[in-house]
Amino acid sequence: MCGIVGYIGNNAVADVLLDGLKSLEYRGYDSAGIALNDNGGLDVFKAGGKLNNLFEVVSSNALKIKKPTSGIGHIRWATHGKATIQNAHPHLSNDGKLVLVHNGIIENYKELKAELEQEGFVFNSQTDTEVAVHVIDREYRKGCSLEQAVRQGVSLLSGAFAFCIMHKDEADCIIAVRKNAPLIIGLSDDENYIASDIPAVIGKVKKIIYLNDGEVAVVRKNNVEVTDLSGNLLNKKVEEIGFNPEVISKHGYKHFMLKEINEQPDILRKVLAQHIKASDLPVNLGQVKLKLDWQRIENISIIACGTSLHAAMVTKYVWENWLGLPVQIEAASEYIYRKNTTGKNSLVIGISQSGETADTITAVKQAKEKSAQVLIVTNREDSSIVRYADSVLPLEAGIEISVAATKSYSAQLLAMYWLGLYVAEQKKTLQPAELGKIKQEMLELPAKMEEVLSNAENIKSVADKLQAYKSVIYIARGSNQASALEGALKLKEISYINANGYAAGELKHGPIALLDENMPVIAVLAQGETYAKMLSNCEEVKARNAKLIAVTSVKDKHADNLFDDILRVPEIREDLSPLLLNIPLQLLAYYLADGLGREVDQPRNLAKSVTVE
Ligand code: F6R
């Protein structure tokens, strides 16, 4: 949420900053701005709305831009204060000399603002960020160095922040500092970069430093010095960037979402090759180092948000069946504000694609404080959440750019499947023959997924027919309850059509009142114990004149007449079926949203990493 960049070097600073912001656009798109330091003047350019507006502002001011040596930039996801130009970053001190960009939330901003106003500081925005400018400026004006002013200023702030700070009189440096919000420094010859996330520096630098909480970096053209908040010099590890520029290209697809949906079979293949090599071989941990004491574990809680929470739902269903252990799942934002029963005999699993979701981070931090064992399942091994992990299970899905999670969901399901099988093998909770059958079906998943993707045209034609509707209901049972919720989430977040998922058996306890010819119902069906009950629920829907669409892995000629449209996936056992049945649901949401002309990769009001609670 919010992306920040900084650059100091010989290249055209404005272009470098805009380019960096472009690759961080998934973090917010309410407004954008840059500040350029040219050894004698500070120029600030801002625009409301999408980044393209800032490109226009900068290009129409091209003649005014001299030859800046450094600059900082920001892309905003509004928290405090509306999405106006006035609230857009960068924010300036009252003398117009100190400027900063911020990602995070300053929780004590009201108290600080009152104090600063009393002292005569004037506020020009409704943001929490502006207090940071003034507290740092107040220290600087007392006569200390910019670096020291930053240290003293940020020590007064509570909440989360990553800042890039510049001063007109110190054009040879940018200061970067963080607490509970990500920040990296990209290193190159005669130039250095600062960014909220790696995509902003991919293809520009090969080496990076991850800044930790409470660290202050003084970034100059030819060197970077990192100290702690007391000023002690730190010897930071310099790491190679593990991604190539390919990962941030659309590869000819219209949207990143479509590209990411299509990447799923290959991701599955890659992960399976590491962990399930054959149906008659034990699950292989590969590079994953599990430091968990399974003997100690009496209960399992899986904590996550949004799509990752749906992966947790599937896991509960499957693991309780495979392992016979109680598995609780909970939205991280709820878990952290109640007296939960997590203790030293608990295994707490945090699932987070980004590893930067504030609620999930707080939850696993609390669990760690209660001596629980913590396993983190994430797509970003370099993210903040791994600090609280005893063990990390990387998803290996590659960087996900589209705001709507697709490939990371499949990778989460696969990770929880193979890990579940591994534990079942260790604890001998599944018979070898059953283990072999599950592994065999897992190995067939990538090809089956390809088959579903090759049916995209058919899915699009069903999506086209749904364009006229204002609301859609999704129903399912068993492990696919999560598919119904995930299908509905995907649709609402990118198309803005009201969509709700229900356990099919719950329909008759209320939601059925919504059904008529204006309310299409998408039924997700898998073979298994509840299939017959699902069909009965579908009959009940049909009897209310609702348009009924099946997304199904079951070949059942007798049922075909029941449905207005059928989206088929290859046959698959019920516990693994969410992985396949979710693909038509992703594509349905995609084609519907695209057909309605929505900005699929950047849905309104959302951002990819939800770094605020
Ligand atoms: C939906 C979506 C969100 C995320 C949620 C958690 O498409 O992407 O619901 O799943 O914000 O994010 P992570 O997994 O990064 O913790």
Short description:
Helix content is 34%, strand content 22%.
Which helices and strands, and how do they pair?
Layout: E1 3-9, H1 13-23, E2 31-37, E3 42-48, H2 51-60, E4 70-76, E5 91-92, E6 98-106, H3 109-118, H4 129-141, H5 146-154, E7 159-167, E8 174-179, E9 184-188, E10 191-195, E11 207-210, E12 215-219, E13 224-228, E14 239-240, H6 256-262, H7 264-275, E15 299-304, H8 306-323, E16 327-331, H9 332-335, E17 346-352, H10 358-369, E18 373-378, E19 391-394, H11 407-427, H12 432-453, H13 456-466, E20 471-476, H14 481-495, E21 498-503, E22 521-525, H15 531-542, E23 548-552, H16 557-560, E24 565-568, H17 577-595
Parallel strand pairs: 15-16, 15-17, 17-18, 18-19, 20-21, 20-22, 22-23, 23-24
Antiparallel strand pairs: 1-4, 1-10, 2-3, 2-4, 5-6, 6-7, 7-8, 8-12, 9-10, 9-11, 11-14, 12-13
The chain binds fructose -6-phosphate (F6R).
Which keywords apply here?
single chain; 613 residues; alpha/beta; 8-stranded antiparallel sheet; 6-stranded antiparallel sheet; 17 helices; 34% helix; 22% strand; binds fructose -6-phosphate
Describe what you observe in this structure:
- The structure is a single chain.
- By secondary structure, this protein is α/β, with parallel strands linked by helices.
- The chain has 17 helices and 24 strands.
- The protein has an 8-stranded antiparallel beta sheet with strand order 3-2-4-1-10-9-11-14, with helices on one face. A 6-stranded antiparallel beta sheet has the order 5-6-7-8-12-13. Strands 16-15-17-18-19 form a 5-stranded parallel beta sheet, with helices on both faces.
- A hairpin with a 5-residue loop joins β5 and β6 (98-106).
- The longest helix is centred in the C-terminal third of the chain and has 22 residues, at 432-453.
- The chain is globular.
- The mean pLDDT is 95.
- The chain binds fructose -6-phosphate (F6R).
